[in-house]
Design a protein that fits this description.
4-stranded antiparallel β-sheet; elongated; 10 helices; 6-stranded parallel β-sheet; 285 residues; alpha/beta; single chain
Length: 285
């Protein structure tokens, strides 16, 4: 998969360039004094390997770091975003100015290992529902400043994106309902504000579910329903509206839900509880 494959590609590309510019400002400050140990005109070859299995994600972030540091450094990718990796696989070969490679190393790896961690975890969840009529969604529980990057990573891993932010659809949760004086009032107000936007409503009981079913909403989120309650919700709904199960979802709970089959399960862990892939860059000549 490439950024260009996504409907939010232009926005993501803009975010990518800005986030890398900030990351480099943060890391370089007034300059890389340690790289000055290396003769200014020295050139080297290097390679990035993974020390553990996973799913590659973040090529374009890695490339942009080098583009901003020194665009003459050449990159030869042996793996693509979405590829399954084995321990000790070589991901990319680099050739160019030694100082530039070493200056860019940490920032480039930070992006690549973080996004690969998100994609790797997303792949596990996608595989858990393979062949089932159940879609895994990500959430807004992302690392600050990396929202769209992590959304891209979960898509690379095989899951689907929920809303990108607070602007592209309504998600009416318990506090919105309380502030509006009820579900019906909240939905009515949403239609008045942006009639072209989708509306999702969170419910915390079967009684609230029945209330929401009579309203013009697109999706109902079942907040912290157990398996039995979710099964009852599916039965009551009878396919009239899409149902999303949410609330501390993990692989064990999802395994239970594959026998109940709401339409979606949203998983904050995809972007919140990630472990970066263990990557290493080494000079090889």
């Amino acid at each position: 998969m490439f950024i260009a494959d996504l409907p939010y590609a232009k926005t993501l590309r803009d975010h990518l360039v800005r986030s890398i510019r900030f990351a480099l400002e943060e890391d370089l400050g007034s300059g890389d004094i340690t790289a000055q140990l290396i003769p200014a005109q020295q050139s080297s070859q290097a390679q990035v390997i993974t020390r553990e299995p996973g799913v590659l994600c973040g090529r374009e972030w890695f490339e942009e770091v080098f583009r901003q540091i020194d665009p003459t450094v050449t990159l030869n990718w042996l793996k693509q975003d979405g590829d399954t990796l084995l321990a000790n696989d070589i991901l990319v070969e680099l050739r160019g100015n030694t100082r530039a490679i070493l200056t860019a190393e940490r920032s480039a790896l930070n992006f690549l290992q973080t996004l690969s961690g998100s994609a790797t975890l997303a792949r596990r969840y996608a595989m858990a529902v393979a062949g089932k009529a159940l879609v895994i969604l990500d959430t807004r529980k992302t690392l600050p400043g990396l929202r769209l990057a992590q959304k891209y990573a979960t898509a690379v891993g095989g899951c689907q994106n929920h809303r990108l932010g607070l602007y592209d659809m309504f998600l009416i949760k318990e506090n919105h309902i309380a502030g509006c004086g009820g579900i019906a009032n909240a939905v009515k107000r949403a239609q008045e504000i942006a009639p072209d936007k989708k509306i999702e409503v969170e419910v915390e009981s079967l009684e609230q579910l029945l209330e929401a079913l009579d309203l013009p909403v697109d999706v109902i989120m079942l907040d912290n329903f157990n398996v039995q309650q979710t099964a009852e919700a599916v039965k009551l709904t009878q396919g009239r509206i899409k149902l999303e199960a949410s609330g501390n979802m993990d692989l064990e709970r999802i395994a239970e839900l594959t026998g109940v089959l709401p339409d979606y399960v949203s998983v904050g862990k995809l972007t919140k509880d990630i472990s970066s892939l263990d990557l290493s860059l080494r000079l090889v000549g």
